[in-house]
Amino acid sequence: MHEKILSQAEKLEGLMIDTLTRLCKIPAISPHNGGTGEDAKIAELEKIIHELGLDEKAKIKIEYVDDEKALNKKRPSLFLEYPGKKSRRLCILTHVDIVPEGDRNFWTLDPFQPEVRGSRLYGRGVSDNGTGLVSSLFALKALLNAGVEPEYTVNLAFVADEEMGSR
Ligand SMILES: [Zn+2]
C-alpha cells in the first residue's frame, strides 16, 4: 500500500509544482505589513480544492477573524475536513500569509512569478509556508487516488495571520 501511495504522489509532481506556483503568484502579505491580506489566496485555494475534487466528500469552511486593518475588516482561514474510518483526527496546519519580499535588488527574479531552476522552485512564500500547504493537500489527494480511505478524519487548516502575531 505504501508503494501505491508513493507512486500516486509521484504522478502528482507536475500538478503540485503548478499549484504551488499558482498560489505563490498571489502575495498574501499581512495588512499589518503593508499588504492586502489573504482573501485572494484563500479564494484561489478554494478553487484548487474544487479542481482536485476534494470537496466532493470533504467539508470546507471559511472562518473569519476581525481585523480593523484588513480589506473587509476580517481575515479568512480555510478549514477542510475529510471523513476517515474513525472520528479520531489527523490535523495539519499551515499558513497562507507570507512576509514581504523585501528589497527587490536582492532577488534574481520577480518574487511573485516563481520559477523552477534546477530541481527547485524559487519565489516568495514557496518555502514559508507554500511547500507545507501544498504537501498537505496533495498527501490527501495521493491517498484518495490510491483508493485508500483515510484511517483518521483528516483536518487541513490553512490559516491567516501567522507572520504578524497570530491573533
Ligand atoms: Zn511562516
CATH architecture: 3-Layer(aba) Sandwich
Query: How many structural domains in the coordinates?
Result: 1
- Record field, number of beta strands: 6
What is the top-level CATH class? Answer: Alpha Beta
What does the largest sheet look like? Answer: 4 strands, mixed
The helix/strand class is alpha+beta
Overall mean pLDDT stands at 96
- Ligand list: zinc ion
Helix content: 25-40%
Name given to the CATH homologous superfamily: Zn peptidases
Task: Tell me the strand order in the biggest sheet.
Answer: 1-2-6-3
Fold blueprint:
Elements: H1 2-11, H2 13-24, H3 39-51, E1 59-66, E2 74-82, E3 86-95, E4 115-117, E5 120-122, H4 126-145, E6 152-159
Helix pairs in contact: 1-4, 2-4
The structure holds zinc ion.
Briefly, what is this?
It contains four helices and six strands.
Structural summary, described in words:
There is one protein chain. The chain has 167 residues and is an alpha+beta fold. The protein has a single domain, classed as Aminopeptidase (3-Layer(aba) Sandwich). The protein is 33% helix and 25% strand. The chain is built from 4 helices and 6 strands; from the N terminus they run αααβββββαβ. The strands form 2 sheets. A 4-stranded mixed sheet has the order 1-2-6-3, with helices on one face. Helix 2 runs antiparallel to helix 4. It is globular, with a radius of gyration of 16 Å. The model has no long low-confidence stretch (mean pLDDT 96). The chain binds zinc ion. The site of zinc ion has 5 residues, from helix 4.
